[in-house]
Amino acid sequence: MSEQLQTDTNAGDDVYEHHGGFPMFTPVKAGPNYADFVESLRRLQDLAVSTHIPDDVVDEAIARIDALSDMLEPHRVPEGKSPAGFNTHLPGRGSLLLLPWQYEKRGADGVRLRGKFRMFHRGGNRAAHGGTIALLFDDLFGMVVHASGHPIARTGYLHVNYRNVTPIETDLVVEGRVDRVDGRKLMCTAELEDLDGNILADCEALMIQLLPGQP
Ligand SMILES: CCCCCCCCCCCCCCCC(=O)SCCNC(=O)CCNC(=O)[C@H](O)C(C)(C)COP(=O)(O)OP(=O)(O)OC[C@H]1O[C@@H](n2cnc3c(N)ncnc32)[C@H](O)[C@@H]1OP(=O)(O)O
């Protein structure tokens, strides 16, 4: 198993040339306080979309956020050199982009995550924005492909069926798997459910393995 894609499940293809033009990523371990850092940023995003603050407080917030950004700026690193996205024990693998969900299962037969859509994922009337649901599925399928031992594949299409309104700030589960393989084409399916087993959305995706050099 290459260090490039090594995870705690040891899943994934180990020949770099099979991963298209992807660079070799060596997972970067998060420090003990990294999860708190990302959670603080998520809280800030929750508040940014759910407050109505006076202009003078806006001015002060801008100044403080800019000061924080100035503190972080010298620590910029190239893609793959940040802990963000590589720490499978953290919500959203430690990435602010990804849904802050955690793995309940990750194996060759599928991947299951549990978590909540946050306030900043709200699309209207306490429902999750449909685009964030597609993001959840898309990232899940990346991990499904990896956990099933296939080389990196990119999403050809995602077909999302929004079956019921998906609530924010409520524990939910999503589970997906590779259903069928046809050469480079991996047909995947997944369902998003509440804890009573009601399907909120389901998704079918075509994941396509990359040819050598494909970005
Ligand atoms: C340590 C902790 C954890 C870390 C662990 C990391 C895990 C590992 C992480 C990596 C994670 C990456 C996950 C990325 C997930 C995205 O990248 S999502 C980004 C959105 N997707 C994209 O940007 C893809 C853009 N598209 C492309 O790059 C190119 O279309 C592709 C996918 C490379 C395919 O191009 P191509 O090689 O020219 O293939 P092409 O001949 O067109 O198609 C191949 C076959 O698929 C079919 N096909 C292609 N598109 C479609 C379509 N839309 N509908 C139907 N059929 C289609 C073709 O008809 C053809 O079928 P056959 O004729 O072979 O039967």
From TrEMBL:
One of its GO terms (molecular function) is hydrolase activity. It is found in: Cell projection, Ruffle membrane; Cytoplasm; Membrane. GO terms for cellular component: cytoplasm; membrane. CDD domains: PaaI_thioesterase. Residues 128-198 form the Thioesterase domain. It is an enzyme of class 3 (hydrolase). It is a peripheral membrane protein. The keyword NADP does not apply. It comes from the Bacteria. It catalyses: decanoyl-CoA + H2O = decanoate + CoA + H(+); (5Z,8Z,11Z,14Z)-eicosatetraenoyl-CoA + H2O = (5Z,8Z,11Z,14Z)-eicosatetraenoate + CoA + H(+); octanoyl-CoA + H2O = octanoate + CoA + H(+); (9Z)-octadecenoyl-CoA + H2O = (9Z)-octadecenoate + CoA + H(+). Keywords: Apoptosis, Cell membrane, Cell projection, Cytoplasm, Fatty acid metabolism, Hydrolase, Lipid metabolism, Membrane, Transit peptide. Its EC number is 3.1.2.2. One of its GO terms (biological process) is fatty acid metabolic process. SUPFAM superfamilies: Thioesterase/thiol ester dehydrase-isomerase (SSF54637). It holds the Pfam family 4HBT. Belongs to the THEM4/THEM5 thioesterase family. This is Acyl-coenzyme A thioesterase THEM4. It comes from Rhodococcus xishaensis.
